[in-house]
Write a structure and sequence with these properties.
This protein has helices at 3-35, 38-59, 62-71, 77-96, 99-104, 110-132, 136-160, 164-186, 189-192, 200-210, 213-234, 237-246, 248-271, 277-310, 322-344, 348-373, 375-396, 407-424, 430-447, 449-462. By secondary structure, the protein is mainly alpha-helical.
């Protein structure tokens, strides 16, 4: 099968699952803004963010190693899964010892946080394994299943029983538990896992691969999420609630990114040793760049009308932070694309070092911008730190996988998006503002027309 067709085909299947689950999540935003106060919403966001930070530490990023090693044609997938589970179980047992410590230092809901963390760890492990063994439909459907379960539990616990933050966490834990059972059944885990497959040698190899990803994950978390703690410290928990809502719109662009990356990671590994790998990577990178700017432009076009519809009036002002958060997502996503070249080459130390630079930049910029500009300062800090990571990775990956960026396209997209953002802040007549934004969106589509031409040819050649 043509590699572009395979990439597109996998993306379509994953898109069905992701779009369904993310659409449900997005539709829940109005529900959360009416059932949770700004402080509660901010607290939920901080708890979720903190669990995402701890996840790679608890699991030693085993889910990444399971995916990469199971993708190797020579590897025994059952042996890899078994040893991945052993590492995750050991990490979960060690983490359990920290629960009493959390209680002593008065961290709220330590038991709930622990079960949220462990259940999330095993969901990630099983999802990555199902993707590695090419059970893409199982992978995609599990996303919809988990989100539907969270939605149902949230409606019952938040709306009916008024359980607030605690109810939200319980909803996620219940959802994770059922998804784990579903994934275990679909991959026939009872046929695969044999503890006689335990291999100290394989565990060492997997950890050698995954341990550098732990500090990388932490650094990436700092780059993506530390701004919430700066806002909490310098502005307040209510402001963090606004910031959490503002991040929901850029998360729509992340839907496209997640769909792409989950299929691209497989293609990146499979094609890494091909003769024209650099050409393949470069062409795909530039198409992905086009997708990012088209998505961002579409969201900017709909931004103000969308915010009036989906959030209560007390949250509407959050639109002001979204344009710069969208730019941060673009730089983050392009950086993540280049991160897959390190993964495919098994040079995970390079991922860590480049991300660490971005994390340090984010912390320094957060201390400068948040006290000065408040919530907007956090979005600026994230934007600039991800831009730094992107620049470094473009240079560093040339050593083993040169990715050639279309500079003309890159500059034109930035110019048009910048004008779209400026127009939003000019306080123009709403109708004229939308007319101008629609014109600029049309220009973005013209600039990135090669993406649609490639998709058209791929589909035409299928027939």
């Amino acid at each position: 099968m043509n590699r572009y067709k395979k990439l597109l085909g996998n993306s379509v299947v994953i898109a069905i699952g992701n779009l369904g689950s993310k659409l449900i999540t997005f539709l829940l935003v109005p529900f959360y803004t009416y059932t949770l106060t700004k402080v509660q919403f901010g607290t939920v966001d901080l708890l979720t963010t903190s669990v995402n930070m701890l996840l790679p530490i608890v699991t030693l990023s085993t889910f990444d190693a399971v995916f990469r090693f199971a993708m190797d044609k020579s590897g025994n997938k059952d042996v890899i899964l078994t040893n991945g589970i052993i590492i995750s179980l050991a990490g979960s047992a060690i983490t359990a010892l920290l629960v009493p410590v959390l209680a002593v230092i008065h961290v709220s809901m330590p038991i709930y946080i622990y079960f949220l963390l462990v259940s999330s760890a095993f969901v990630s492990l099983l999802l990555n394994f199902s993707r590695a063994i090419d059970q893409i439909k199982t992978y995609a459907f599990s996303g919809i299943l988990g989100t539907v379960l969270i939605a149902i539990a949230n409606i019952v616990l938040l709306w009916w029983f008024k359980t607030g933050v605690q109810g939200y966490i319980i909803s996620v834990i219940l959802s994770n538990g059922i998804v784990i059972i579903f994934l275990c059944y679909m991959i026939r885990i009872w046929k695969r896992v044999r503890f006689q497959y335990a291999s100290t040698n394989l565990i060492k190899k997997m950890m050698f691969y995954s341990v550098p990803l732990m500090p990388n994950a932490f650094s990436w978390w700092v780059n993506s999420s530390a701004d919430r703690y700066f806002i909490l410290a310098f502005v307040g928990a209510g402001a963090n609630g606004l910031y959490a809502v503002a991040n929901k719109i850029p998360s729509l662009l992340n839907i496209l990114n997640q769909v792409f990356f989950q299929s691209w990671q497989m293609s990146a590994v499979e094609e890494f040793d091909s003769d024209d790998a650099s050409t393949f990577y470069s062409k795909t990178f530039n198409y992905f760049l086009s997708l990012q700017f088209i998505g961002a432009a579409g969201l900017l076009l709909m931004l103000k009308p969308l915010m009036k519809i989906i959030v209560s009036s007390s949250y509407y002002i959050a639109w002001e932070y979204i344009p710069f958060l969208l730019m941060a997502v673009i730089y983050s996503s392009l950086s993540s694309f280049l991160g897959t070249t390190y993964t495919a080459a098994k040079r995970t130390a390079g991922i860590f070092l480049t991300t660490l630079v971005g994390a340090i930049a984010n912390i320094l910029l957060g201390f400068i911008f948040v006290p000065w500009l408040g919530i907007q300062g956090a979005s600026f800090a994230g934007l600039l730190s991800f831009a730094i990571v992107l620049g470094i990775r473009l240079i560093d990956t040339k050593r083993f996988m040169p990715v050639i960026i279309d500079k003309k396209n890159f500059i034109l997209n930035h110019f048009i998006i910048s004008i779209m953002i400026i127009v939003l802040f000019l306080s123009m007549n709403f109708v004229w503002e939308q007319v101008v934004e629609l014109f600029l969106f049309s220009l973005i589509m013209v600039v990135n027309r090669n993406l649609f031409i490639e998709i058209w040819h791929s589909q035409k050649n299928k027939k």
